[in-house]
Design brief:
The protein is mainly α. It has helices spanning 5-21, 28-44, 70-92, 111-118, 121-134, 155-170, 187-199, and strands at residues 143-145, 151-153, 172-174, 181-183. The chain has two domains: 1-49; 52-199, Four Helix Bundle (Hemerythrin (Met), subunit A), CATH 1.20.120.920. It contains seven helices and four strands, in the order H-H-H-H-H-E-E-H-E-E-H. Strand 1 and strand 2 (151-153) form a beta hairpin. The radius of gyration is 18 Å and the shape is globular. The two termini are 23 Å apart.
Length: 212
């Protein structure tokens, strides 16, 4: 399958333009409006990045509770894993995962963890989902349709995804802010620690995680 490189480039430029508008936001509502516009652009190109098994894995739009296709079922599972990682990291550094900045606080909702994972989802979850499909480490046979129409992974597929998740966490990168080599799995903790340091006045600004 050939990528539409022009569309990808146009989308990249459009998202950069949105990024430049952030400093002029005067409210959380304005900021979330920009986030929504960027998400629409991002997911509008997501299907192109699925290069193998197109009959079983495709992306038209984000669906959840329940996920309505195999791709959304995989993403939802990975996002759940990442939410647990973010919540645990925040608790470890003394922050309450339930009290967020951007996600509205609701009973039982880990709003701060959801805030934190926004910057981590493309690297942790989306990239891994595409790798699992494009490398044919999972197949459409591992997904089942419930009577409600929702899609679930079978036990064998969940184990394969979890194994790949653990392997990814052991990979090492140079953290863009610390300039130190750390395992992928420590990134949520490091970002939670940096957020805590900012909130306690030890940093002038929170350094978000940017990685190519």
């Amino acid at each position: 399958m050939l990528l539409d490189t022009q569309k990808l480039n146009d989308t990249s430029q459009a998202m950069k333009a949105i990024l430049q508008q952030i400093n002029s936001c005067n409210s959380v509502a304005d900021l979330m409006g920009l986030e929504g516009a960027a998400a629409k652009l991002y997911f509008g190109n997501f299907d192109q990045l699925i290069l193998q098994q197109k009959g079983d894995f495709f992306f038209t739009e984000r669906s959840r509770r329940p996920p309505l296709d195999n791709m959304n079922a995989l993403l939802s599972y990975l996002y759940t894993l990442l939410t647990f990682e973010a919540s645990s990291a925040l608790e470890t550094v003394g922050l309450d995962p339930q009290v967020g900045f951007l996600h509205q606080d609701r009973p039982g909702r880990p709003s701060l963890a959801l805030d934190l994972m926004e910057e981590l989802r493309p690297v942790f979850a989306d990239r891994l989902a595409l790798s699992l499909i494009n490398r044919k480490q999972i197949t459409g046979a591992g997904f089942v349709t419930k009577e409600s129409g929702g899609i679930l992974m079978d036990e064998e597929t969940r184990k394969a995804v979890l194994l790949a998740w653990q392997e990814r966490k052991r990979e090492e990168i140079i953290h863009p802010f610390l300039k130190e080599r750390i395992p992928f799995g420590l990134i949520p903790y490091v970002q939670a620690l940096l957020l805590a340091r900012y909130l306690r006045g030890d940093l002038d600004a929170y350094p978000p995680f940017f990685w190519n």
